[in-house]
Specification:
Chain B: This is ABC transporter ATP-binding protein. The complex is a heterodimer of chains A (424) and B (310). Chain A is mainly alpha-helical and 424 residues long. Helix content of chain A is 70%, strand content 5%. Chain A has 20 helices and four strands. The longest helix of chain A is centred in the last third of the chain and has 31 residues. The chains are: A mainly alpha (424), B alpha/beta (310). Bound molecules: adenosine-5'-triphosphate and magnesium ion.
Chain lengths: 424, 310
């Protein structure tokens, strides 16, 4: 029976010229206008991901090296071995590599700005959320590191490990830096592990590989052009009109007494609303495929990670289904079209503004950006932008969950407050 | 089979239906006749389980439908006064939809759709989108949509409003066939006398929320059987002549419009000679006098002092 509602609703959508204009023509026009008009604005900007990194060193590399050399002298190794080890130290120093090779890498420098900060300021740094990531080098880091490489058996103190403080507000950027540091950390623990089982190290071989990893994860980040940004933003705004359309159709159904026939047929309210929910999901999904497909063909906005793209598209479509169900119920409950009208005029606009359809939320105040992320538009845009730039699906799980919760919650509310008696 | 017992519907302070009693037996065709605003649609909504009455009860096969309307809904078809169809769907798609929500599917559904299209005479236009239909075709489809689930009883609320005579005749014939060939019980609402006279065995006449007369066509007309109506055509309207008729003791009612004068008198009285006398006395020329058997219109006029339609 739900099947009947689904088929009917899809036909009603397809047969309405307003739908085609509102759902497809208008967004395409807007994407084109905004994409080209504001193109310059975007190109002038730096890449959307910028990571300010604070580098805090609790110890002193030079002192650590001296301490290690003292230890070497005292050890029972013969002078030749000592000389060999001392020769190798220079090429091995992890902090030096981090500062000079990783952070100074040209590509990375476009995104990551490292600033050295005195240890006294660390607590203050953690409080003001200026930095995306704070890297803290613990005391005697280099000493412990060298010890663990050359004297794995004598290692008594803690593992040499860098401490990372990620700023949650700068998810994207901080994750990026964290990934790099993790790679880096992984590299040098590998070295120590190899040393422990007695395999001689070959620093010359390790180093290039190490820089390679970091650079790769950087170059995966694609910058977002204006046209790509607005394809996402405008689509997220216009997909919501599916919900107001569904509300409008439902109201017409009630007004024309078709709903009377539905009651008399003994079809359940739930199957009626499920038809609304699922059809809105399907329509929203198709609409988005057409809009993104158009943008790909006409403007080359390409999605490398197609399956993640589809996952987000399904999730936002589910959210739209929830809105469609709720708006339908409210129209019925209050015998007026006020709710679908309100949703299409004010609701959609507010969501679009907060979500960042027109202006990236990054430029707004923190609070607005936070709220924006919780709107369906904002969550979906965030997810699309991440995936578009080449991040993995795991970076957008919270957004996907937000969208699905929207869909399910609103649908359940819609079904549960749908009026039992429908006044004529 | 279906009966309304003393039902009342009150909106705010206004009693729209007031203590109405009504029943329909299986296989019967019943007419509900009344002017605009009489409360016909409200009555229908209550007896078809769509709107609960403010007081009173509606029973189907002796069971109240107020708490449990499903049994009635299973066998009931309702043709609403407003056209209740999807404008963006074709005739066939509409029928398919209304069949599906009645849990029909597959071959049975297809067969029923063709059957109904045939019955309402829209087989050739089945692919046409409803919004492109004429008023009459929409009305026919509006009826067809209520027949998809083979109802035992069908309630029609003014199914012929605002359509051309041809479509109207088609609909009236169809309704008759539904009763005679398929044995459906029918409750037919209208403010057109002729329709109700043509279709219905038994008639309820309703005005201002109350039933003012009920019975078979003949029974109702016999309310007036003690009287007859004369229509007098004069050359020039003349107030003196009308006044003099009014003063005649046997004349019950006098109405005039233009050069036509309608009077109601007891059946056995012969007033022809007297009328010519009066005409002469007031210098009026009578062109013709016609005697008529009463119509439902006359009954309504008699009962309420108002014309059914104005
Ligand atoms: N929901 C409502 N709220 C208030 N008044 C109503 C409502 N529905 C109907 N009425 C009033 O009740 C009266 C009877 O209406 P109803 O539609 O039952 O008459 P009807 O006999 O079907 O008239 P018509 O021939 O015009 O269809 C009208 O005066 C109408 O204004
Ligand atoms: Mg009515």
């Amino acid at each position: 029976m739900f099947n009947a509602f689904l088929k009917k609703q899809l036909l009603v959508f397809i047969r309405n010229p307003e739908v085609i204009i509102l759902q497809l023509v208008m967004p395409i026009v807007l994407i084109t206008i905004l994409g080209f008009a504001l193109g310059g604005l975007f190109e002038g900007e730096k890449s959307p991901i910028e990571a300010k990194v604070a580098y805090v060193s609790q110890g002193n590399e030079e002192d650590d090296i001296e301490e290690f050399k003292t230890f070497l002298q005292k050890s029972r190794l013969d002078p030749e071995a000592i000389a060999a080890i001392e020769g190798q130290i220079k090429t091995l120093l992890p902090l030096k590599i981090l500062r000079e090779d990783v952070f100074e890498n040209d590509k990375l420098k476009e995104f990551v700005h490292v600033k050295e900060v005195e240890p006294e300021k660390l607590t203050k740094l953690k409080k003001n959320k200026d930095y995306a990531v704070i890297i803290e080098v613990p005391e005697k880091f280099t000493y412990h590191f060298l010890m663990s490489v050359f004297f794995p058996s004598e290692q008594t103190s803690e593992k040499p490990e860098l401490k990372l403080y990620q700023n949650e507000d700068r998810e994207l950027a901080s994750q990026l830096v964290a990934d790099i540091i993790e790679d880096f950390q992984h590299q040098y623990t590998l070295q120590t592990a190899l040393a422990k089982i007695g395999i001689p190290m070959n620093p010359e071989m390790k180093q290039p590989a190490e820089s390679e990893v970091s650079i790769q994860s950087i170059s995966a980040v694609k910058s977002v052009s204006a046209i790509a940004y607005y394809t996402i933003g405008i689509s997220m705004m216009f997909v919501l009109y599916v919900a107001s359309m569904a509300g409008t159709f439902a109201f017409a159904e009630k007004e024309s007494n078709v709903y009377t026939r539905i009651i008399l047929s003994r079809a359940s309210r739930t199957s009626y609303l499920m038809g609304t929910f699922i059809s809105a999901i399907i329509i929203a999904f198709i609409q988005l495929l057409i809009l993104f497909g158009f943008s790909f063909i006409a403007y080359g906005v390409k999605w490398d990670d197609l399956s993640s793209f589809l996952a987000i598209t399904i999730c936002i479509a589910i959210a739209v289904g929830g809105f469609a169900t709720l708006v339908t119920t409210l129209n019925y409950r209050f015998h007026s079209q006020t709710f679908s009208n309100f949703f299409s005029s004010i609701g959609v606009t507010i969501f679009a503004l907060l979500g960042g359809t027109f202006v990236p939320v990054k430029g707004m105040s923190e609070t607005v950006a936070e709220i924006g992320k919780l709107t369906p538009d904002g969550a979906a845009m965030n997810a699309y932008l991440n995936i578009y730039q080449g991040y993995g699906i795991e970076t957008v799980i919270p957004q996907l969950v937000t969208l699905c919760i929207y869909g399910m919650m609103l649908a359940v509310i819609g079904v549960s407050i749908f009026p039992k008696e429908v006044r004529q | 089979m279906l009966e309304a017992i003393d039902i009342t519907k009150q909106f705010k302070k206004k009693k729209v239906v007031d203590g109405l009693n009504m029943y329909i037996e299986s296989g019967e065709t019943v007419g509900l006749l009344g002017p605009n605003g009489a409360g016909k649609s409200t009555t229908i909504s209550m007896i078809s389980s769509l709107v609960p009455p403010t007081s009173g009860d509606v029973r189907f096969r002796k069971q109240s439908i107020l708490k449990n309307p499903q049994e009635l809904r299973r066998v009931l078809g309702v043709v609403p006064q407003e056209i209740a169809l999807y404008n963006d769907l074709s005739a066939k798609e509409n029928l398919l939809f209304f069949g599906r929500i009645h849990q029909m599917s597959g071959k049975q559904l297809q067969k029923k759709v063709d059957e109904v299209l045939e019955l309402i005479g829209l087989s050739e236009q089945k692919k046409v989108i409803t919004k492109h239909f004429s008023g009459g075709m929409k009305r026919r489809l509006n009826i067809g949509a209520s027949l998809m689930h083979d109802p035992e009883m069908i309630i029609m609320d003014e199914p012929t409003v605002g359509i051309d005579p041809q479509s109207r005749n088609h609909i009236l014939e169809t309704v008759k066939r539904l009763n005679q060939e398929m044995g459906m019980s029918i409750l037919y609402t209208s403010h057109y006398m002729e329709e109700v006279e043509f279709i219905c065995d038994r008639i309820y006449i309703m005005d201002q929320g109350r039933i003012i007369a009920v019975g078979t066509k003949d029974e109702i007309k016999s309310i007036l059987s003690a009287e007859k109506t004369l229509t007098i055509k004069v050359e020039q309207p003349n107030e003196k002549f009308i006044q003099s008729i009014r003063q005649e003791g046997l004349v019950k009612e006098v109405q005039s419009s233009g050069n036509m004068i309608t009077i109601v008198i007891p059946k056995e009285v012969n007033l022809f000679a007297r009328l010519f006398q009066l005409a002469e006395g007031t210098e009026t020329t009578i062109q013709s006098i016609e005697a008529q058997t009463p119509t439902l219109e006359d009954v309504f006029l008699h009962l309420t002092g108002r014309a059914l339609r104005n």
